[in-house]
Design brief:
The protein is of the alpha+beta class. The chain has a domain at 64-150. Helix content is 27%, strand content 24%. It has 3 helices and 5 strands, in the order H-H-E-E-E-E-E-H. Strands 1-2-3-4-5 form a 5-stranded antiparallel β-sheet, covered by helices on one side. A hairpin with a 4-residue loop joins strand 3 (88-96) and strand 4. The termini are far apart. Mean pLDDT is 76; it is low at 36-58.
């Protein structure tokens, strides 16, 4: 009898703890959706609020590594867009450093090895970038590596 009483008490405890409860005070009422698949306003608002966050964090295009002649720079430059307009290549790229990421926009005239560029700490600054004058990139510099990659 000594063994049966504790076993009975433990069994009763588990039965009470695991049984379903009739307490529904924390249950939210549900709204029936119509046959037209209406979306509740709360859910629609939440979904639309998430889109800008996703757009800001996701890359706009697949990143293509730009090879660099300097081994310390290799794999740190990535082409994000390229378009040809008025005999010039218009590109945007990212430089991923150890401590920061910078964004750049460059126009390249492959026919005479000239560039115009602008770089910033954020991608939004590229939209209103003043590209400046046409220059010849420094031989063996990163700009020349980018020109070589684009104009190959």
């Amino acid at each position: 009898m000594k063994m049966k009483l504790p076993l009975l008490i433990v069994s009763l405890f588990f039965l009470v703890a695991c049984s379903s409860s009739d307490d529904t005070s924390n249950v939210q009422p549900t709204q029936e959706l119509s046959d037209t698949n209406d979306i509740e306003p709360e859910l629609e608002e939440t979904a639309s609020n998430m889109v800008p966050e996703v757009e800001e964090s996701a890359p706009k295009a697949e990143l293509t590594p730009i090879p660099m002649s300097d081994s310390f720079e290799n794999g740190r430059y990535f082409l994000t867009s390229q378009m040809t307009e008025n005999d010039a290549e218009n590109i945007e790229y990212i430089r991923k450093g150890n401590d920061n990421t910078s964004y750049a926009k460059m126009q390249i005239k492959c026919s005479n090895n000239e560039i115009r560029k602008y770089s910033a700490d954020n991608a939004d600054a590229l939209r209103s970038a003043n590209m400046g004058d046409w220059i010849t990139p420094t031989p063996d510099g990163t700009d020349q590596d980018i020109v070589n990659f684009i104009c190959k």
